């Protein structure tokens, strides 16, 4: 039998009031307190534009999302004066010792079932080169707000719509987590709650039973509705009527409405959804070691520089020009992108030095190379010379 998907219930536009500052808020979510990002879905229900009044300061807000947003207010305090970063010394890290390099190499080889340990024990290290590889990371901690119409069965909750103007999405106090800790919070917007008849059951609290089509009766399962079993014997299960009371509705022909839970009325209100998230970008400076950048993503390094404040400034005076350029580009991109769509609460930038040592060694008269990198002393061997084909019997 084919499977069919039943879409969620979306109440009609007439159920909702127009609330000052929340024009464009729709059932099922979608009206954003900031321009919608790619990760947000298209709302299932879009009320007609005629529902909404033009509210000063909210011009351009439309129904069903798609541009219906209220940008965050400007910062209440002026940005601090940029400070010149202190000059950075030469952060050159000397090559690790031969014993440490050989130990890391041995650990790596032992993890490979097809690698012989002979190159480790017999190989002769001829040269070791160290490389400075920098990783720059910028993190921006933001607060994003969106609104959606919500509903719940009405059981006598207080109604406050129209008592006074509802506060704007960015005027409502929310308790943020500690910096750089992601979190979500949902807040019921004051002065938006009203009561409406449930549209799905027309305010009756019950809907026709789908199992018996509202009749309250179903064919007897033992006699298949004939009233008889085994030729002339009357079915005892249905007393020969061929029909039985429908179990799901207890013979009433209707079931409690799932939307209003039998109350017949719904409390309609606006929910403010607040999301705190971390937006992160990284840059790894290229070096001449020829070790692939993807490998460096697996390891940690030595933290050389850390700066955290409301809005950071590009790193100045760093010895590697590519890191300074990446800092300037990413800081500009983050502040230009996220300041327009959300509220920036804090930024943090760090620079790590990832130690990379290139080890040249000889085995059986031929030269080979392996790399030891990161604080974890991970190893990448290039063309390991003594491999075999393994098979599991």
TrEMBL record:
InterPro entries per UniProt: SSUH2_homolog
PANTHER family: PROTEIN SSUH2 HOMOLOG
Protein name as annotated: Ssu-2 homolog, related sequence 1
């Amino acid at each position: 039998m084919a499977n069919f998907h039943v879409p969620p219930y979306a109440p009609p536009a007439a159920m909702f009031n127009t609330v000052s500052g929340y024009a464009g808020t729709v059932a099922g979510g979608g009206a954003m307190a900031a321009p919608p990002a790619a990760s947000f879905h298209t709302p299932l229900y879009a009320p007609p534009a005629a529902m909404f009044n033009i509210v000063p300061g909210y011009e351009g807000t439309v129904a069903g999302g798609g541009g219906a947003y209220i940008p965050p207010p400007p910062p209440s305090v002026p940005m601090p004066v940029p400070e010149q970063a202190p000059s950075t010394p030469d952060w050159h890290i000397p090559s690790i010792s031969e014993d440490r390099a050989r130990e890391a190499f041995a650990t790596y080889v032992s993890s490979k079932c097809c690698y012989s340990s002979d190159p480790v024990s017999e190989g002769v290290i001829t040269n070791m080169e160290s490389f400075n590889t920098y990783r720059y990371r910028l993190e921006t901690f933001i607060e994003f707000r969106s609104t959606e119409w919500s509903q719940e069965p009405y059981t006598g909750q207080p109604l406050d719509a129209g008592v006074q103007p509802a506060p704007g999405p960015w005027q409502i106090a929310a308790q943020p987590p500690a910096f750089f800790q992601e979190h979500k919070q949902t807040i019921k917007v004051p002065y938006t709650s009203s009561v409406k008849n449930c549209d799905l059951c027309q305010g009756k609290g019950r809907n026709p039973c789908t199992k018996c089509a509202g009749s309250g009766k179903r064919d007897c399962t033992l006699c298949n509705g004939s009233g008889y079993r085994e030729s002339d014997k009357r079915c005892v299960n249905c007393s020969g009527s061929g029909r039985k009371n429908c179990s799901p509705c207890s013979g009433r022909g209707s079931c409690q409405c799932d939307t209003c839970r039998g109350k017949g009325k719904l409390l309609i209100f606006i929910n403010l959804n607040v999301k705190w998230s971390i937006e992160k970008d990284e840059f790894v400076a290229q070096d001449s070691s020829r070790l692939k950048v993807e490998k460096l993503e697996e390891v940690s390094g030595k933290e050389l520089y850390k700066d955290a404040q409301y809005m950071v400034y590009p790193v100045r005076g760093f010895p590697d020009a590519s890191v300074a350029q990446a800092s300037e580009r990413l800081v500009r991109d983050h502040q230009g992108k996220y300041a327009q769509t959300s509220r920036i609460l804090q930024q943090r930038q760090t620079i790590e030095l990832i130690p990379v040592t290139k080890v040249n060694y000889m085995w059986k008269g031929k030269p080979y190379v392996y790399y030891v990198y990161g604080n974890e002393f991970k190893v990448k061997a290039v063309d390991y010379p003594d491999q075999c084909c393994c098979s599991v019997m």
